[in-house]
Design goal:
The protein has 205 residues and is an alpha+beta fold. The protein is 32% helix and 31% strand.
């Protein structure tokens, strides 16, 4: 499916064209530059230390789409968003996937996050995943509202699960949605979000 469906050129709200495609082995420099340019307050909540080039290099060299399907959005030769669908391998949870997404601040509030989410949902549907989960900092109101807008529901809040750079405890929200509901909801939401007067509910998307 990845070979047939990508690369895909999409147009953002401001008229910018970006290309969404799978992460490739030769993408290390662009991907590392993307993560390096993220502000500290964005990077601190990522699951891995993306300031370590070896971490990022491993992602570009050990691509295994049976376990993780990585996508990037590129504006010319720059990566401006990185998203991934993680497939849970345990027998009793093979129907569950996990999405992760981060967007460059220069490309937020332009619909890119929604477009990337739509692609991840389509990949989940193709893999017969029935439920998707997303983990969000609970007091990141914008991100929580964005996921709620497309039908995700907060099913648990883990108190003090995350520490920021000042070692302050932050709560982690676990949000869930059914893939069968998401496909049409995403299409309807994207049509509205691309209208000129629409204000996206979250800055991170």
């Amino acid at each position: 499916m990845l070979t047939k469906s990508y690369p895909k050129t999409v147009t953002l709200k401001d008229g910018t064209s970006v290309v969404i495609r799978p992460l490739a082995e030769g993408d290390f420099d662009q991907l590392f530059a993307f993560f390096e340019a993220l502000p500290d307050e964005d990077r601190i909540f990522l699951r891995h230390d993306v300031s370590d080039p070896q971490v990022v290099r491993k992602w570009t060299e050990d691509i295994d789409v049976d376990h993780v399907i990585p996508l990037v959005a590129c504006d010319e030769d720059k990566v401006v968003a990185s998203g991934s669908l993680h497939v849970i391998q345990h027998d009793c949870m093979r129907h569950v996937g996990h999405i992760r997404l981060v967007t460059a601040r220069s490309h937020r509030k332009k619909g890119l996050g929604g477009l990337m989410t739509r692609e991840l949902v389509a990949l989940a549907e193709h893999r017969n995943i029935e439920k998707l989960q997303a983990h969000v900092i609970h007091d990141n109101v914008g991100a929580v509202k964005m996921f709620e807008t497309v039908g995700f529901e907060t099913v648990a809040v883990l108190k003090g699960m995350i520490k920021d750079r000042s070692w302050k405890s932050r709560d982690l929200a676990i949000m869930i949605n059914d893939v069968a509901n998401l496909t049409q909801i995403m299409e309807d939401w994207l049509q509205q979000s691309m209208l000129p007067g629409f204000r996206a509910p979250g800055g991170g998307m």
